[in-house]
Amino acid sequence: MNRPETKALLGDEALAEQVQSGDQAAFAALAHRYGPKLAAFAGKVLLDQTIGEDVVQDAFLKFWQQPGRYDPAKAGFSTWMHKVVFNRCLDHKRRRGFAPLEDAPQQIDMAALAPDVMAANERDRAVQAAINTLPERQRAALLLCHIDGVSNQDAADILDVKLKALESLLSRARASLRSALMPMKEELL
Amino acid sequence: MSSVPDDKALEGFIGESLTRMANDTASVTPGFADQLAQMAQRHPQPRASVLKRVIEAFGGWSFAAPQLAGLITAAVLGVSTGQAQVADVDLTDQEAAIMTAHVFSNDDMAGWDQ
């Protein structure tokens, strides 16, 4: 019952319930299932992979020590854990005195990323660089909906905004990306 | 943002690029998931003679204390009230402090996942 391969077959909520009973294998299964994905997400939100991993470790440790904080009746485990991680990212930035959430995006020289012929990974890197210039909430909305495959409603819940506001964040994020990447369109397409 | 050209080709490219990045965890430190998974072994899940400590914090065993303490214990530790009532292991000082604080204020734990 506690074999890792058995746990891998269980759904998130079943595993979370087992964690409440102190089941280390169930915790390990959730850590393997979501740890790297959440760490990548946090790293992109914070623009610092190391701190992103620290944030995810902290979130998982809290979950292990207080698993009752997760209520499956209110949200799926993935949605809930994304929310915990995102809020911890915000807390981290506030503590470190980073710029306010809706500050103007940083300006980067996209032309410097545009050689005549770009390999696929270089093109993706250019897109990633453009994503990194987005204001934090726009970036998080885009990462959640397009990269982590979270539904718009779940993303709105994670970011603690109304669905309309989430859609507005996404719309502005896409427009900003188009604007940033337009000068290098010929190299990208 | 209305000045941004509505370029379908570029929009499509951006969408495809985002999809390629979808499950890209290459930036994550190798072994991170294993390290995360092992945290449960390194950090024992708090169980408690918390019930006893909470009852003490209430000033003794009154008729209401056991039920109320059981509910608080269950809420703070994230276990069922049944588990809280049968749990009987030592409590660390930090856990005791949290529990004691929680008896008198609900603010101490607020916001950790907010």
Characterise the protein shown here.
The complex is a heterodimer of chains A (189) and B (114). By secondary structure, chain A is mostly helical. Chain A is elongated. The N and C termini of chain A lie far apart (51 Å). Chain A is built from 10 helices and no strands. In chain A, helix 2 packs across helix 3, helix 4 packs across helix 5 and helix 8 packs across helix 9. Chain B has 114 residues and is mainly α. Chain B is 54% helix and 0% strand. Chain B has 7 helices and no strands. Chain B starts with 7 loop residues before the first helix and ends in a 10-residue tail after the last helix. The C terminus of chain B is likely disordered. At the A-B interface, helix 3, helix 4, helix 5, helix 6 and helix 7 of A face helix 1, helix 2, helix 3 and helix 5 of B.
What is the oligomeric state here? heterodimer
Helix content of chain B: 40-55%
Task: Report the C-alpha radius of gyration of chain B, rounded.
Answer: 24 Å
Q: Largest chain interface and its two residue counts?
A: A-B, 55 and 48 residues
In terms of structural class, how would the helical and strand content of chain A be classed?
mainly alpha
Give the tally of β-strands of chain B. 0
Low-confidence stretches of chain B: 85-91, 104-114
In terms of structural class, how would the helical and strand content of chain B be classed?
A: mainly alpha
The best one-word shape of chain A is elongated
The number of helical elements of chain B comes to 7
State the order of secondary-structure elements of chain A, H for helix, E for strand: HHHHHHHHHH
How large a portion of the residues of chain A is in β-strands, by DSSP E? under 5%
Tell me briefly what this model is.
Chain A is mainly alpha-helical and 189 residues long. Chain A has helices at 4-7, 12-20, 24-46, 49-65, 77-96, 120-132, 136-147, 152-159, 163-181, 185-188.
